[in-house]
Amino acid sequence: MSGSFRYAELQVTSHFSFLRGASSCDELFTQAALQGVKAVAVVDRNSLAGVVRAFEAAKATGVRLIVGCRLDLMDGMSVLVYPTDRAAYGRLCRLLSLGKKRGGKAKCILEWADLVAYGEGLIGVLVPDEADETCGLRLRRLRDAFGDRAYLALTLRRRPNDQLRIHELSTMATRSACRASSPMTCSITRPTGACCRMS
Known about the structure:
This protein is of the alpha/beta class. The protein has one domain (8-196): Metal-dependent hydrolases (TIM Barrel). Helices cover 37% and strands 20% of the residues. It has helices at 25-34, 51-61, 86-103, 112-118, 133-146, 162-175, and strands at 8-12, 39-42, 64-67, 69-72, 78-83, 122-127, 150-153, 179-181, 188-189, 195-196. The strands form 3 sheets. The chain has a 5-stranded mixed β-sheet with strand order 4-5-6-7-8. The chain has a 3-stranded parallel β-sheet with strand order 1-2-3, covered by helices on one side. Strands 9-10 form a two-stranded antiparallel ribbon. The longest helix is centred in the middle third of the chain and has 18 residues, at 86-103. The radius of gyration is 16 Å and the shape is globular. Residues 184-199 have low confidence and may be disordered.
């Protein structure tokens, strides 16, 4: 990596996201360090289960850990959240406890109203599918609730028309007075050290 270019991976899924991630935090952070990545956000689905191992891996490799979580809400909306301080981390823990209590074993039932109620101090990044009316509505709701802490993810899906989709989403973010972010999706490391996406 060039000395002036700094890169942070904002959407990494560890093997604590059952059937989504396949690599351990040690593997993910080791590869990040080898590739010159400065920071990694571990955002397991509806869980902070990987945070302790990620913290240990970050300490061992010198790669900064960004604590986060991917919340998959009951209405189909997915939001990456990152606490900005200890109080926000505590609220995120309570939010996840509420969802796990409702869902029972291996499930997490959360509604949009729950995220708003516990959202103080969280950065929220909407993970959209298409730049359609539903995405526009969800983005406006996120902006109204999170203000300048609301973002729209511009994630490649490695499918036809990705560039057009990204352009449409970026335009939608601009129209909604919301910032766009470009998190990659890393859930497994290959033996060659390359990160690949599993969907």
